[in-house]
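User: My collaborator sent over this chain with a note saying "see what the structure looks like." That's all I know about it. Can you take a look?
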Amino acid sequence: MTGTSRAPGRRRPTIEDVAAVAGVSRGTVSRVLNGGVNVSADAQAAVNAAIRKTGYVVNLHARAMVTQRSGTVAFVLSEPQERFFGDPNFNALLRSCTQSLAEHDIALLLAIAGSAEERKRVLRFLAGGHVDGALLISTHAGDPLVEQVLRLNLPVVACGQPIGYERQMPYVGVDETDGARQIVSHLLDRDRTTVATITGPLDTPGGRQRLVGWRETLGPLADDTLVAHGDYSRESGRTAMADLLKRRPDLDAVFVASDLMALGAIEELRRAGRRVPEDVAVAGFDDSPSAVSAVPPLTTMRQPFRRISSEMVRLLLGRIAGEPPATVILPAELVVREST
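Assistant: Without extra context I'll predict from the sequence alone. Here is the result:
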């Protein structure tokens, strides 16, 4: 039996037990358990060691009664359920946010709000005091969820620019426009002369701003016949690529606004007898696992999902603690592979 096991009938360790082992006051232990505010590093280390030695387990219900906090945060995805399972970016964000919150002993709850009915249920849940805050993922312009969540006065942080609410809601995102500029410039540097693009949904920040970056970089060469639209899904990339080939068979490169759509575009190019990259260079955005597994491996813009997640958690915990809202914009990094 280990030192932290509790024999049958033995009483559960208390805060007083932890304080006695650590050689500190009960109040110091309580402050460590509630975030470590005004506690020295030595005292915090002693309390954490005492917790491990005694096997003390926090009574979350009792803590919630005292702090008026649930110890839970909602991860609210404004997409259909199948999109969550089909898009690796959402899984990467969920995993990283879960890990960041776990460092603060806070649980993360996934809530899907991809339809009007789901949105109503999620809003009722958020309004019921079940969570201390929310992370909004994949918001769309015109989606009533953003405004309705703001009305709840619940601490919230968005992933990506919440279009129309940039001054009211803190968010963390990448510099979408600059990322698009970098990757289109890369295609031009490869002596590609007719660079098309497949956009994401234009009611999302990535859809809008990556298109802006493409236009700014091409300047007078940015012909509307070189633009097709997708919805970030693999199938939409295939369909959009087929449309582009009909309109502009002379294209020799395409910047696709997500890796999943780029995979669909490569499939369509192969079906049409075009070689990648010899005939058409293909570049994506995200650097998701699918970029490495693509044939050929995909040149893309790397989004720092782990850092995005940690910054979202940092801002949200600050809002929960009463800090003013803030916004963080991170750079995307060009990753060159065989597809260009």
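A starting point for your reply to your collaborator: Residues 22 and 45 are 9 Å apart (CA to CA).
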